[in-house]
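User: I'm writing a short methods note and want a consistent example. For HEAT repeat domain-containing protein, I'll paste the sequence; you return only the structure tokens, no commentary, since I'll be parsing the reply automatically.
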Amino acid sequence: MVNSNVRYNAAEALGEIGEKALPSIRSLIQNKEDKLGVEALNSYFWNYVYMKEDKKAFSQIDIELLSQLTDKSHLNTVAAIYAWQGNAKEANEYAVKTVKETPRRVKLLLEGKSPKQVEEKMKKE
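Assistant:
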């Protein structure tokens, strides 16, 4: 519960200050052992980029940093972002390494659905 609150608060802070914080977070997660930085970046991408459909709030460097990790929730985020960008090859490559819902999410995104539409549809299924 404490870690979940810390991740949420870190993602919330990132959402508030946006891109200004990303260089610091990037330098922190260059060391893959920095779990808090990685979790904060992943939460930021999911909650403030993907769910708010703000493609301007990240760079490819950020996705590449997350894609080097092995945690399935991080790779789920990577697959979803690539699919949202229309990059089917990368999206499908990461989708097979993730949680069972990810291939369905990727398929819907590649069909042109928005992240909000996809997540609504997935909640109903």
